[in-house]
Amino acid sequence: MMNFNEIAKEVLEIEAAELMLAANNISTFDLEKAVDLIYNCKGKVVVTGVGKSGLIGAKIAATFASTGTSAFFLHPTEAMHGDLGMIAKGDLVLAISYSGESGELIQLLPHIKRFDIPLIAMAKDSKSTLAKYSDIFINISVTKEACPLDAAPTSSTTLTLAMGDVLAVCLMKKRDFKKEDFASFHPGGSLGKRLFLKIDDLLRKDNLPIVSRETKIKDAIVAMSEGRLGNVLITDENNKLIAILSDGDLRRALMQENFSIENSALSIATKNPKTIKEKEMLASDAITIIEEYKIQLLIVTDSENRVVGVLHIHDLIEAGIK
């Protein structure tokens, strides 16, 4: 019976060994020249390759694009049928072929050089056709594929992908690419939301459950149910916030012997609840306040302590702010 854990361990060890071999030989790569060439590129980095190399190339292009290097993937066959026009003066081509002899890619090379476009090649052989056309050659050779037949691209594609990451990270360091820069390329991601989404973007401002200081508990319960926030805001005659009645306050009051729904809601409410005035505050900072004060509802008021809106913890969670 096959032991798949042993097989998995062997695959990972083989690929890890190839990565470590490349790491130990990194000084033999023209890495600094490649990074400088991409860094000084005035146009876009065009990544190209076929088969598995093409799939890896598409991921490398995506990584470049999300880390500050303008890039896109171009399939060699599509390039030969019209899409070559996507490459312009000032661009740079990163071509990937493990053998360095992929037919579709080789056909493209003379046209790239005809436009005087710089070419960085990733292949296993410095004597390959792709390498000979290149301005900079990056060796992605491996001693062994993880495939038991030593045939299917496994270790080699892992190393190619890793070398793409090497270039991307080196470029990030060279550009001093910060967390805020990354977030600007990922505004819909969790990091982008934490860095850009503000309280005002999530604030509930309309139809808030607000009652006066004279309101009885029975009427406050109705307002709480209709407001669907689990809370009622209590204001004075000048519409200034003076208290908040939560469902927790209500449950605790129910345990008191003298409880009556005819009593004033203010009598069982929390006086001087936590409020903020900075509606431009980041939503990520708001959830820190909510967690610190162990509250569900954060109230935003103006300079006169009038209610501007409220932010419920559920609004933050639904927006992906955690």
Quick structural summary:
With 322 residues, the protein is of the alpha/beta class. The chain is built from 14 helices and twelve strands.
Instruction: Give the C-alpha Rg.
Output: 31 Å
Q: What's the CATH C level of the largest domain? A: Alpha Beta
Average pLDDT: 89
Briefly note the structural class of the backbone. Answer: alpha/beta
Overall helicity: 40-55%
Description:
α8 packs across α9 (190-196). The protein has helices at 4-24, 31-39, 51-66, 76-80, 103-114, 129-133, 155-175, 179-185, 190-196, 199-202, 217-227, 247-254, 283-293, 313-318; strands spanning 45-49, 71-73, 92-96, 119-123, 136-139, 210-212, 231-235, 241-246, 270-271, 275-276, 297-301, 307-312. The mean pLDDT is 89. It has 14 helices and twelve strands. α3 links the parallel β1 (45-49) and β2. The two termini are 45 Å apart. The strands form three sheets. The protein has a five-stranded parallel beta sheet, sandwiched between helices. Strands 6-7-8-9 form a four-stranded mixed beta sheet. Strands 10-11-12 form a three-stranded mixed beta sheet. It folds into two domains: 4-177, Rossmann fold, CATH 3.40.50.10490; 199-318, CBS-domain (Roll). The chain is an alpha/beta fold and 322 residues long. InterPro entries: CBS_dom (IPR000644), CBS_dom_sf (IPR046342), GutQ/KpsF_isomerases (IPR050986), KdsD/KpsF-type (IPR004800), SIS_dom (IPR001347), SIS_dom_sf (IPR046348), SIS_Kpsf (IPR035474).
Task: Please name the defining characteristics of this protein.
14 helices, alpha/beta, 2 domains, five-stranded parallel beta sheet, elongated, 12 strands, four-stranded mixed beta sheet, 16% strand, Rossmann fold, CBS-domain, 322 residues
